[in-house]
Amino acid sequence: MFQSCIRGRRETGLVLALGLLRPATAGSQAIDKQPASQSNHIPGVTSHQHHAGGIGFLALTALGVVFGDIGTSPLYAFSIALSATGHTVPTPADVRGIVSLIFWALMIMVSLKYVQLVLRADNDGEGGILALLALVEGDRLAVGLRISLPMILGILGASLLYGDGVITPAISVLSAMEGLKLAAPGFASFVLPVTLGILVGLFTIQSQGTHRIGRLFGPVMVIWFLVIALLGAVNIAAAPGIVTALNPLAAVPVLTGSPAIAAGVFGAIFLALTGGEALYADMGHVGAPAIRLAWFGLVVPALVLNYLGQGALILADPGAADSPFYKLAPGWLLVPLIVLAAAATVIASQALISGVFSLTRQAMQMGFAPRVAIVPTSSDEAGQIYVPTANWLLMAGTLLIVVTFRTSDNLGSAYGVAVSGTMLATTVLLYYLVTRRWHWPLLAAVPVIAVFGAVDSAFLAANSLKIFEGGWFPLTIGGALAALMWCWRRGTVEVRRRLLEMSMPIADFMRHIDDLVVARAAGTAVWLTKVEHGISPMLLHYVRHNAVLHRTVVLLTVVPDRRPRVPFHERHTVKRLGHGFHHITVRLGFMQRPDIPMTLRNCELLGFDADLDHVHYLIGLERVVRRPRSSKMGPVSFAIFTFLMRIASRAPDFFRIPRDGLTEIGFRLEI
Fold first, then answer.
1. Is the dihedral of CA 339, 341, 342, 348 positive or negative?
2. Which residues pair with 576 in a beta bridge?
3. What pLDDT was estimated at residue 407?
């Protein structure tokens, strides 16, 4: 069985397992002040009710937070695609074909797939591949270890997006700094240290919050998009024939030539789309309407004009193929453009960083990651958060990859492999969503998803050629994170299953309580338990050894909900069990952070009557060990799980339990 020891202090290495569940995180407001979401959300209709400020202000924030990645792709995407043709001097067919591919990729995969369709797949205003998984699987995510294709895709897609999040800041800032070599060739030796310094500064300011960063970055990105649009428009005049690239047939010569060249070009074209998944992951920060307004109102027109301008420049002067973006500008504008590009590329990193913060919170709440500290950065916006652990790990990975690959061309070989896998996973999950929850007829769902899936598959196949040239790096990161996620989920479910086996039905306990308890102490005891429909083994063992309970006993269970936010009127359930016992169930969405003292105050409104001025809190502190013969976890997965338990944040801190009156009850648990 298990051995018990009662501690009123912290015991390093032991944490509360699963039960208090996939802890939620959200805004800084107390539970009774958290914004209530609509309980009957209409699928496919995005709500931005959780976002304060006018649509114009939110669109400006979106420019600073969401569009930096895709907005700075003209710095490198077109030139890398030209290099992939294998021609020292690009031919007019190469130029028109590449511009055509970029244009139609932006229209089909970003404008149609993400901005028009995927952003409608919001989980009550929240986006990202894990929010999409929650929509597809619903409450089934909380049931056992059932493995499904959507669950596998969700874990893999989220993990690969982390891998992409390491590369995006590196390639963005490096590509801008390398422009300095055009203005001052002697500066080449300073490119790497300056890049590292900028990246350190970027990650350092993340604690300031999305709204402050958006206010700072938004105006810079407005200037950026206006400048690149103007540069592109001016250069189109040098070779107006470039507009024929808008005809999709212009891409045929590139695609029907050498298969190896076609694959290389297609993989390079993908670099123009790499911020697409970030649009969805960052939706919770500003809302889908703001993203759509910024995209169609400024971002996509500027991108199209700039790519057309770069193509026109190469048609007029093929010798400019080594740096077509910077050569759009006249000589006197080169240095200001480099400075602006440096600022824009710093901002470009923000889209993935913010997206990683959102994904981390969702993974934690959905049972795929251990608890980590979540810092709300806005009193008005529940979606705006800062995750210190994710931030510093990202910074370490980004600095490492800059030092390892050293140039943006080298990084271009590693870039795109991970995010193309995430985009394909999103497309497959979208099929499950439109058929299961939106109830599209197959005649409508299959053709739409087939088109997106075919393009995503082609991009993934083309990018797979980069694996041995550097693509292994983000895949390694993604694979490692996917393994960690699965080990954590498997371990926590096994812990929960074992505790349920060891629990006692409430009715049986109540029949024998007078025999078990010889004295009732004054005051209120709150037992945080993961066993929703029984008496936890922690409480049973306490009673057997002490035969004393408080006069008022509260069994409190936090239950996750697939929605981001549970409205106040649905959040609390109070049941009187007799003999001074009460059972309180708190349902929280994956954007809400539990606050146990505030929960008790809220329950007073539902008729819960107890002395809340003198509350004693008791929580479990399991020491999990592996059964050598009958365990369902292998030695490696168990070792990973216990390591994650040790580094997880402490349950009392996460649940905002005051240290005064806190007792942690440690016991041995075999799984």
1. positive
2. 582
3. 81
Instruction: Sort 193 into a burial class: Cβ within 10 Å, 0-12 / 13-18 / 19+.
Output: exposed
321-358 b/e (C-beta count within 10 Å ≥ 16 → b):
beebbbbbbeeeebeebbebbbbbbbbbbbbbbbbbbb
- Alpha carbon of 538 to those of 79, 491, 499, 658: distances in Å? 63, 19, 9, 20
Taking the C-alpha atoms of residue 589 and residue 281, their distance in angstroms, rounded to an integer, is 17
Going by C-alpha positions, the residue among 198, 525, 179, 554 that lies closest to residue 341 is 179
Asked whether 4 and 545 are in contact (CB, 8 A), the reply is yes
pTM of the model: 0.76
Report CA torsion sign: 59, 61, 66, 72: positive
The one-letter amino acid code at 272 reads: A
Cβ partners under 8 Å of residue 9, min gap 6:
664
Helix (H, G, I), strand (E, B) or coil at 643: helix
Tokens of 210: 């999305």
Both tokens of 615, joined, read: 């509350």
Number of C-beta neighbours around residue 138 at 10 A = 14
Which pLDDT band, with edges at 50, 70 and 90, does 20 fall under? very low
* For residues 400-421, average pLDDT: 82
Looking at per-residue pLDDT, the higher value among 65 and 300 belongs to 300
Across the range 191-204, mean pLDDT stands at: 87
Q: Which amino acid is at 382?
A: A
Which is more confidently placed, 100 or 140?
100
Q: What is the pLDDT of residue 47?
A: 39
Task: Give the DSSP H/E element, type plus range, for residue 33.
Answer: none
Least Cα distance to 426 among 262, 281, 580, 238 occurs for 281
Residues 6 or more apart whose Cβ sits within 8 Å of residue 633: 490, 491, 494, 626, 641, 671
Question: Is 500 exposed, middle or buried, given 0-12, 13-18 or 19+ CB atoms closer than 10 A?
Answer: middle
H helix intervals, 525-647:
537-546, 568-571, 596-604, 635-647
Q: What is the dihedral of CA 135, 139, 141, 146, to 10 degrees?
A: -120
E-strand stretches of 369-478: 375-376, 385-386
